[in-house]
Structures are given as C-alpha cells and as structure tokens.
Amino acid sequence: MIDLEEQLHRYSDFKSFRPGQKAVLTQLLNHHDTLAVLPTGGGKTLLYQLYGAITKQRVIIVSPLISLMQDQVSRLQYLGSKRVIAITSAMAFEERVAILAHLNQYQFIYVSPEMLANATVLAAISRQETGLLVVDEAHCISEWGPDFRPDYLKLRTIRKQLGNPLILMMTATATKATRTDILVKMGFSPENVEQVIMPTNRANIFLSAKICLNQKEKNQVLVDLVSQLNGAGIIYFSSKSQAEQMAATLTQQTGKRVMAYHGGMANQRRFRIQQQFMNDAIEIVCATSAFGMGIDKANVRYVIHYHLPANIQSYVQEIGRCGRDGHQSLAILLYEPNDQYLQLNLMAATIPENQLLAHLYQHPNQLSQNDAFRVIKYYYDNGKSFEQATQIFNQAKLRRQRELNTMIRYIYTTGCRRKLLLQYFDETIHDLNPDLCCDFHTDFWGHWQSFNQQYLMQTQSVEKKPLNDWRAILDRLFLLKN
Amino acid sequence: MELSTLYILFGDLTQTRRAKALKNILAGRRTVSNLYWALEYDLLPYFGALRDFKLGDEKNALDRLAHLGLIVLTDRFSFQLTNQGRDQQVNLLKLLPPIKKLTIAAQNDVVRFSSRFIFATQIVSEYSYSNKRYYPQTIGFFDDQLIKRWFIQNKQRQLPNYFQELLDRFLTQLHDDLLAEIFIQSLTGHHFSGETEDQLSAKMGVPPTIIQLQWLMLYADLLTRVQQIPTSPLKLLLVGLARSPMANSTNKTLIMYRNTDYTPEQIASRRRIKLTTVYEHLLEAAIVLPVNQFPFSRLLAEPTKQALESHQPSIIGEWAFKEAKAAIPDLSFFEFRLFQVLDKKRKNDD
Ligand SMILES: [Zn+2]
C-alpha cells in the first residue's frame, strides 16, 4: 500500500491532508470510480494533481467555468505541475490547432464540456492515453439544477470514447437527490461508485445577516463594517458596475485599500489585483458573484454579500472563500427589501420568455447562433414540442423562485442559521458552540465590534512596507548571489 | 484610454481636426481616408500607436472638452484647441517622455513586448529567490511557450544580475525618478505586485490615461534599447513584434504595378479584386511610402498634374473634389487624391 502522507510531502508543500482528501485518493488508487462532495476550499485540485503525480498518468479535467480555467491552470502550476494546458472556446483557432498537435506533451488537460463535444478536440484527446477523467462541478449534469449544462449529458458517451478511464466526479455542494441524478446521468448504478461526502458545515465561519430599511442604510452599514473589520474581505455584488462604484466609495470612506475584481477586466489587470490581494497589498475586493477567484487565499477573514445570491448552494460556495486557514471567520449577508426584485430580474434574464421560445421554435436555425440558447437547443434537438419546452421552463422558473424564497427565508429566520442551512443538504450538527455559530444565539449586531476584536485576526502582511523609491524596489525584486 | 485626454494631446490650435479620423488614426483603422487625414495632420508616424487600447466614444469626449472650454467645435465632429486647451496640452506633454517615442509603438507591438517583459521579470524574480511556487501570469499560448523556451535557453546566463543591471541603467538614464517609479510599478515579482494605472493615477494625481501612455512610451524606449544590444539574453523576446507599414494585399498590388507595365484594370483582373480596391491600394502606398519610392508620374499624367497645379487653392487640404472637377472636367477622384498626397508629401520634405 502506498504511503499517502509520504507522497503528499514529496509532491506538495502541504503538511497534512484536508478532510476527505485521503479517502478520495485511496478510492482512486484502488481504481474505484468516485463521486466526491467536497466543500469549496476543500482542496479539490490537490486530489487529481497528486493522483497524476503518483501514477504518472494523464488527467483530463472537464470544467464548465471557462473564465476560471486559466486560473486553474495557474493554480496547478503553482502547486508544482508544469505540463498543464486548457482548451477552451475562448482561445484563438491557431492556438487550439497548435495545442492539439502537441497534446502528448501535457499531463493535465483542462477542457470545457462544449470543447469536448467538438469532434476534432475529442479525437485528439482520444489519441492520448487517459488515466483519470475528472468531472468538475458535476452537478451541472442535473437538469433541474440551476447550473444545468446540456453538454454535460454527453460526458457519458465521451467517457466511452476515451476508453472508459477511471472517473472522479466532484462537486462542492449536492443534495442527495442531485447526487443520485449525477450518477444516473453518467450511466452508473449507485452501488458501483464510491461516494466520499464531506460535511458542508464550516464550523469556523460565523453566520449573520442584517435586514436594512433601504439602500442608504445598507451602504452605511457596509461602510461601518469595512472600516472596522480586521483582516482581508470579499464583498459580493450582483453587477460589475455596482462592484466598481462601491470599491470607489469604500476606498474614499474607509481608508482601506479596496479594488473591484470581475470578469470584465483585462487579463493583466485581473492578475495584478489577484496578486495584490494574495500579497495583502489590498485588503478588500468587490467581486461579482458570477465570477469567482481562481486563487486560494487562506486568510480571508470575512465575506459580505451586498446582494443576496440566487440560492443556498451559491451562498454556501461563496462564503466558503473565507477561513480556509481554519481561523475564525465571518459571513455577513446585507439585505434590503428591494434586493429580491433585483434577484428576480436576474433570474428572469436566465430563463427564456415564452415569446423568445416561440420565435426560436419557429426559426430553429438561430438556436446555434447564441450560446445562451444552448439549453433550448438541447430540448429542441431532443424532440420536445413547444408546449413541452414551455412547461419545462415554467417549472424551472418556479423552482428558482422557490430557491430564492429559501434564501430569503434564511435571511428572515428567527432560529439558528446554521441548522437551517445544513438542513438543506440533509446534514445535522451535534456540537455547536453558540458563541461562534450565528447571530441567533448572541446579540451579534449589538456587539459585532467586540466579536471582531476578540475573534478576527489582523493580517500579517507578506508584502513589506510599500516602497516609493524605485531603487529600493529594484533591489528587492531580484535576490543577487555574489 | 480617455479619448478626451488624447484629443488634447493630438489636437491643434490652428488646424481643424476631425474627431473620428483622429481616433481612427490612433487606433490604426487602415482606410485610405484615415491614412490621408493622418498625412494631412502630420500624424502618419503615429498611425496605430494605440491600437491595443479601448478609446471610448467621440461624442462624449468632445462634449466634455467643449464644456470645459478646452476646444471649439467647428462643426459637430471637428474641433480646434482653444488657448486654454493648448496650455493643457503643454502641461500634459510635460508629464510624458518625448511624444515621438509613441511612433515606436506604431511600428512595433510594444504592448506585446511589455507583457512578455513583465512575465519574464516575474519568472526571473521568483527564480532569484529559488521560489517555484507562485501564480504565473497568463499571456496566451504562443507567448507562454516562447517565454518558457527563452528561460530554459538563458537560465545559465545569470539572469537576475542581468535584469537588475538592465533596469538600473534604463531607469537611471531617464533622469526622472517619477517616471522610473511609474515604470517599476508596472512589474510584478517575488512578493511584489506593482500597481494598476488607477492606483498610480490616484497616488500621482495624473489621469490614468497618462499613466498608460507613460508605460507604453517607456516600454517602447526599453524595446529600442534592447534591440540595440546584439548579445542581449532578451533577443528571443523580441521576435514577431515588427509591424509592417502596409497591408499584405496592398504590398502585392504595389509590387505588381512596379514590376510590370500592367494598368490598374489589368491588375484588378489578374489579382481578382475590384478596380476600386486596386486604386485604394495604390493610394495607401502613395501615402505611406516616401515620395521617391512611389510611381507618381506613371499614375498622374503630366497635363493633369499641371492643370491641378494651376487651379489649386492655397490650402490644398481644404480643396473639395467637386470644385476641382468643375475646373478640370475629366479629372478622376483617384487623380485628385493622388495630387493632394503628392503635394502634401513634397511640402513635408521641404
Ligand atoms: Zn446558530
């Protein structure tokens, strides 16, 4: 039997495994197909990085988040693997051709499900021996989930074309029903797949929410919090422009170093802000929920939602970005009654109106012209009538409304927030510490300053005192050996 | 970049300039009309210098500048600087390296060079600290490959020392600590993440566009310096940066015309392109090339030229084709434009 701890030290700088990692690796090394439910920050990347390093085999990672894929490549490089590449529709045609011609040079290949459905790409990948197929964000295969991606349904056949390699399906949060759905859609019977499920609960994150009278009050609360809270923070917004505006306001009114961070920015700018956040040169980023961060910053002390997310799963994923170092952290959701309409509008934008649906059913050639129509195209191609499709989308709309209502119930709850949250994932907790659980057990909002003082650590800055003298900066940039 | 800042920098106190053409010139939108205006405004060497930047909306920029009294609009989309605008121009120019440096960015892909150089600096900086665990920048597949190859080939050449010396010499020679500071903040490396243009803008109290121009011009300067060192370990980072002054197809038309005695009609049929396209290619070449490298006399018959000379007004740039045509009935637009180009180029040569 392989000594996993030894391998961990050999191939990474980590001192020990995070919960669940060892169990998953053991299953994989015993050649068992595995479904892993690991919370964000649970170290998903390390799993396949280590598997690849130990077995020297090629790993294909299917991931739906094109905007994040390059970050994932960087992250794997950061973790010490250099032969990594991503194939996405975002890259230039010549680039893709060059990469496909030299695919054998890469051990870790990231690919979007849409790209994998492309015959040329699939053929090039099938020519290589694949040791492990990783399906990231596996819940995207679930038709009744909010992140449904029709191309995920093709993965079952694609796996066969790749010679049925060992498979690792991963997701951060999945209810029991979603888990079963994933397995069925991938063509497994549940008894043939090992499931490693780690609890969603993150005991070191304090949960709180505040209902404000209006936006003005919400802004004031945000300014107060940001001025005083210790350590690094992420604030989530539902639009880029709001994130930009608030970053400017907070810079002006709190004296803290705040930057906006979202998908609309140029690569170099995004990289620099990411670096600054990693190096603690800026303390707070105003981000859009649609756009996560590829980096793994361990010492984020708090996550504030300026706008509520669409559902509990997203919320749990987003707050999971704080406290990865295990120290006490804080999740705050700010809400004012108008926010739900904002979220309803966003929701309406993701589900096609009847009129559009009717138009596309009459002009099906337009279905392939826009990526946003891929779900409609899927139903059309599968012979669903207009009436059936309408019904499916109406149901989707109702489902999302229900999910949003659950989210709002979380905000208005008069009980323990953690219990409510975990109930959603069929989880229970036994040993909760009421002082560090949520704002139901203590008067958090009356005493958040002292909570901050007592529990949230200040950042120990890595980037030394900022220098203004270019000579001093230059001297420090390169360590010269004489 | 803020178009309003660029309009101040590239506006003129006496010559009326078309806002749209000015923007297209800087963005490098290669049409005969844009090239012609670039010639007319003496901005041909700047053609396409800012092609990698988003330049914003003309109307907003003009409204803002007019409102501030920095320009006067001569019609809805043309403007001249006011005296106040001219003062502002002088102030902005003081913040920049000599504006001529921007022409390097028209001839070379300076932005691409800068992203290669910044990435190379990060790699060398981390390498000097023996740190292998860091997030590398992402600069596209081909450049990524290029930099990996470069690093492997040059690792033995004491790169940290080389970078340190190169940058120290380069920044010292600027004789401007503020510019040197702005340059160094464009880099990233071991526990150093530099600053964005808006962070520097807030710190220095100058518009973000000026910071971006400073960066572009400083990297242009650095590029020329590195090009001049034949043994530089950075040689490989310079490949594929040169920009050709003419489009490929234009060049083909020109070569065919120069090397044969084909008429434009014959070239059109040989090259299977439209006759108007042939004329556009020839005009583009006439504008871009030095006078003695373009066959003006073959395309502009002596009698036509003499007729044009005898009717031309004092400012030929404002001569409308309609007026010229009224005086010389069988004049074509091509001949008219070609004459304008020739006249302007001769005056520039004097
Ligand atoms: Zn609780």
UniProtKB/TrEMBL annotation, chain A:
SUPFAM superfamilies: P-loop containing nucleoside triphosphate hydrolases. The keyword ATP-binding applies. Residues 25-192 form the Helicase ATP-binding domain. SMART domains: DEXDc, HELICc. Pfam families: DEAD, Helicase_C, RecQ_Zn_bind. Residues 221-368 form the Helicase C-terminal domain. This is ATP-dependent DNA helicase RecQ. The lineage of its organism: Bacteria, Bacillati, Bacillota, Bacilli, Lactobacillales. The gene is recQ.
Automatic annotation (TrEMBL), chain B:
Residues 249-340 form the Helicase Helix-turn-helix domain. It holds the Pfam family HTH_40. InterPro entries: Helicase_HTH. This is Helicase Helix-turn-helix domain-containing protein.
